[in-house]
UniProtKB/TrEMBL annotation:
Taxonomic lineage of the native organism: Eukaryota, Fungi, Dikarya, Ascomycota, Pezizomycotina
Molecular functions per Gene Ontology: ATP binding; phenylalanine-tRNA ligase activity; tRNA binding
EC identifiers of the protein: 6.1.1.20
Pfam families: FDX-ACB, tRNA-synt_2d
Organism, as annotated: Pleomassaria siparia CBS 279.74
Compartments reported by the entry: Mitochondrion matrix
Domain (FDX-ACB): residue spans on this chain: 341-447
Identification of the protein by name: Phenylalanine--tRNA ligase, mitochondrial
Segments forming domain Aminoacyl-transfer RNA synthetases class-II family profile: 45-339
Function: Is responsible for the charging of tRNA(Phe) with phenylalanine in mitochondrial translation.
PANTHER family the UniProt entry points to: PHENYLALANINE--TRNA LIGASE, MITOCHONDRIAL, PHENYLALANYL-TRNA SYNTHETASE
Entry keyword Secreted: no
Protein family (similarity comment): Belongs to the class-II aminoacyl-tRNA synthetase family.
Length: 447
């Protein structure tokens, strides 16, 4: 890695032994997909923003943040796995590519400009390779707080004021499963400085606001499905379809309590669409707004856009192919994505012995520059060598040799370009380079 890197806007950063961010990841920074007119992520962002009138929208926070912003300001413990170099892209010991938009919570609360705000931005995580995971994706963060002092002398309690605001959120007719109490003393505790009746009101405001978003997205998706059916000359699937199923489940985040996730039923499975909760009072106190109390959420824009448009592969968002881009418009009603023909996949296996000195794959290695082998290293190498041609990488077999104690692993890589058929020759060559780099960079021994 070069000793110094230059990014957009003349920003320069010194690297050190913590640097683990490949150039291919840095090259995503200037793309700003969530701001490209007519890009599906941008349309999805605007659709959600329209459900939060009067909120401030922050869409241009730069992705390079301090370890403090990304983790410490949010109360992540010093040994949290998220801090590992196996999971997070570092430029140097103190500087990372944000792993979530929550990295900007404290700074945005500090501005104390509006009661509600939304942040949309690109986020970066070392992770699996498959059709729903990409090392760069987009999140929207949102928060709404109330100032205790603003109700003083107004003849209304804070809880009453918040309930009045709950009434302003559009009502929906869907059934929401929410079996747990708002507050649970062990699993989902009330914060010391909060009163239960205030938090019941804040939680109601949070849940109603986010249910409204999900209902808006799914009615748009339904409409898109109906339009698609009509165009294909088929009867509309929407009228008698089963109702939308949504449920709240308890969750844990270091920076909210109590916390919840919202799940939506999609193609027979529960799909997690967002995390949320009551903002930790410490965070607000440290941001200079100790009189405020409120909620925050974070959702994945790709996930929502994939549901909205029936986009089958997360790599497509990065496509510059007009066959992809021309299918989306902010002025036309939402239409389902029509995949261009699905090109054949090419599947290859690679088996190897792990280096004897390294710790077991998938184990939690301590944060620090000299970590052992981690599965995410394989994932990243596959992306580095193959770019967006690699669709999926998964462990299909592993065993420990009974005599030598060495560990063997077999990974299956699925190659498929989104826009053309790959030739056997180019795939064999690419796979050979991948195998060679596994040896050179990770020190494995091919079997
Ligand atoms: N930042 C969390 C994540 O990426 C989501 C979240 C945001 C949860 C805000 C609670 C409040 O998973």
């Amino acid at each position: 890695f070069p000793p110094e890197i230059q990014l957009e806007g003349g920003r320069t950063y010194k690297t050190d032994s913590w640097m683990n961010t490949p150039a291919s990841i840095l090259s995503a920074i200037p793309r700003h997909l969530h701001l490209q007119p007519d890009h599906p992520l941008s349309i999805t962002r605007q659709l959600i923003e329209s459900r939060f009138p009067g909120y401030a929208y922050h869409n241009e926070y730069f992705p390079v943040v301090s370890v403090y912003q990304n983790f410490d300001s949010l109360g992540f413990p010093p040994d949290h796995v998220g801090r590992n170099r196996t999971d997070t892209y570092y430029l140097n010991k103190e500087t990372v590519l944000r792993t979530h938009t929550s990295a900007h919570q404290a700074d945005t609360f500090k501005k104390n400009e509006t009661e509600g705000w939304l942040i949309s931005a690109d986020v970066y995580r070392r992770d699996a390779v498959d059709r729903s995971h990409y090392p760069v994706f987009h999140q929207m963060e949102g928060a709404r707080t109330w100032d205790r002092k603003s109700v003083e002398g107004g003849g209304m309690t804070l809880a009453e004021k918040i309930w009045a605001d709950v009434e302003k959120i559009p009502k929906h007719g869907i059934k929401v499963e929410d079996p747990n109490p708002t507050i649970h003393p062990e699993r989902n505790p009330l914060q010391e400085t909060h009163s239960a009746d205030e938090i019941e009101a804040v939680a109601a405001h949070l849940k109603r606001s986010l249910e409204d978003v999900v209902v808006a997205i799914f009615s748009a998706a339904r409409l898109a499905a109906a339009n698609a059916a009509k165009q294909a000359g088929l009867p509309s699937p929407t009228t008698e379809e089963e109702p939308l199923k949504v449920r709240w489940v308890e969750a844990y985040f270091p920076f909210t309590s109590p916390s919840w996730e919202l799940e939506v039923e999609w193609q027979g499975d529960w799909l997690e669409v967002l995390g949320s909760g009551i903002v930790k009072q410490d965070l607000l106190n440290n941001s200079g707004v100790p009189d405020r109390v409120g909620w925050a959420f974070g959702l994945g824009l790709e996930r929502i856009a994939m549901l909205l448009y029936s986009i089958p592969d997360i790599r497509l968002f990065w496509s510059t192919d007009p066959r992809f881009l021309t299918q989306f418009s902010s002025t036309r009603p939402i239409q389902r994505f029509v995949p261009f023909s699905k090109y054949p996949a090419c599947v290859k296996d690679v088996s190897f012995w792990l280096p004897t000195s390294s710790s077991a794959a998938g184990g939690n290695t301590p944060a620090g520059p000299n970590q052992g082998f981690h599965e995410n290293d394989i994932m990243e190498l596959a992306r580095e060598v193959c770019g967006d041609v690699v669709e999926d990488v998964r462990l299909v077999d592993e065993f420990v040799h009974s005599k030598t104690g060495r560990k063997s692993m077999c990974y299956r890589t699925n190659y498929r370009a989104l826009d053309r058929t790959l030739t056997n020759k180019e795939m064999n060559e690419m796979h050979a380079v991948f195998c060679k780099q596994l040896v050179q960079k990770l020190g494995v021994e091919l079997r």
